[in-house]
């Protein structure tokens, strides 16, 4: 929860000289909390400070730990070893990228991290949940609550508006109906689509469609957002917009994002890049 702590204007102007500051007035802006527009307005009037009143997150404790993970698939009577001993940690509020040649195993790993698949060997701890030991039903339950997915191809319902697409994901996540309106508004504003909420996918550009898909993926407030080549179908400008939205999401929604990409310019904004070669990470 963010709150604007607004000081009286004359006090803000004379801040350095003020001997006894008056008590700040709290203004709850939950519906538009931390939207990029709101923040810019606050910065420019010089009279408000954005104060995050949520409890702090300990960013030194991993959100997810992958230890010695191996995965092989039976192909033509033989085992195809795709992941050959993966170790990694994802920390809260990080932007992590997986890079590597086509077929190196990035999507296979992303599927494990997201609880869609399980390793043949090794461990995956997501928060307090041992994904490597959980049943399908348990992983589905955790996934619906804690993880969001974004795909290269947007995966939107074509006949539903942006608003209805995001609302649908709240319905599927069994979020109470009373929370839908503020949450859908917040998510669509966060991705910069406040003015296009009622457009259907075919009325939006590729970059806008991907931003609807992002709003849809974060609507249920997951702690981990996984994205498989989210910028691959976009030109460089739209790709950069998506990355700016990811940065905003990490800051305001306090999510961790793990994505795959082939694009070196996109990698420049990562907190951490893991390079996969033939089923293993190589260190630089
Ligand atoms: N269910 C499966 N059954 C058999 N082989 C599979 C299966 N899933 C993945 N593979 C194989 O595992 C290898 C790695 O695939 P993966 O999709 O993880 O690679 P990737 O690095 O994501 O590639 P790209 O960048 O092209 O998406 C490929 O050779 C693929 O054919």
UniProtKB/TrEMBL annotation:
Origin: domain of life: Bacteria
GO molecular function, one term: ATP binding
SUPFAM superfamilies xref list: P-loop containing nucleoside triphosphate hydrolases
Annotated Low complexity bias: 11-20
Upper taxonomic lineage: Bacteria, Bacillati, Bacillota, Bacilli, Bacillales
Domain ABC transporter: 64-282
Database matches in InterPro entries: AAA+_ATPase, ABC_transporter-like_ATP-bd, ABC_transporter-like_CS, ABC_transpr_LolD-like, MacB-like_ATP-bd, P-loop_NTPase
UniProt protein name: Putative ABC transport system ATP-binding protein
Record-linked Pfam families: ABC_tran
Region (Disordered): 1-20
Alphabetic keyword roster: ATP-binding, Nucleotide-binding, Transport
GO cellular component: membrane protein complex; plasma membrane
